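Journal club prep, notes for RB
We'll compare a predicted complex against what the paper describes. Inputs for the zinc ion case:
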Amino acid sequence: MARAPSPAREARALPNQFGDFKSPLLEKIRRRPDLFFMKFTYYGHACFAVQAGGKTLLFDPFISPNPLAKKIDVKNIAADFILVSHGHGDHVADVVEIANRTGATVIAPFEVGTWFEGKGVKNVQSMNHGGAAKMEFGRVKLTSAIHSSSMPDGSYGGNPCGLPP
Ligand SMILES: [Zn+2]
């Protein structure tokens, strides 16, 4: 069986690609390839994960109700942070399960984050548009998005946001 591509394995191959060339940057990459490469995993719809800097960021988890993602077991998905753009069910369906199982911090617009706190999620970083926060993986800032937002139970979900890199 073929081995899955690994950013770390590819990074370890870098010295060979550069021959005898040496540089401070290449030495840093050799020591901590996880800090310089990221792995992207697409889970369907608007859900994906980015592994970078030793952390896993999961965006808008909608997996268990998605018939196109039925082969994915949501119980196997890791996350250190779950970033949520708005409250619609097709973006928040698996947030509570994954957050409670992994202890991940949920980063969301204020009303959405408050709703998750009411659902028992322990680690929530609620934010407002234009605000930024320094997190373990880097800086996160919510930007404006043109859409709507309400929670699956009809609660007010505030404004949707963008989560630019
Ligand atoms: Zn939506």
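Talking point for the session: The first strand starts at residue 39 and ends at 44.
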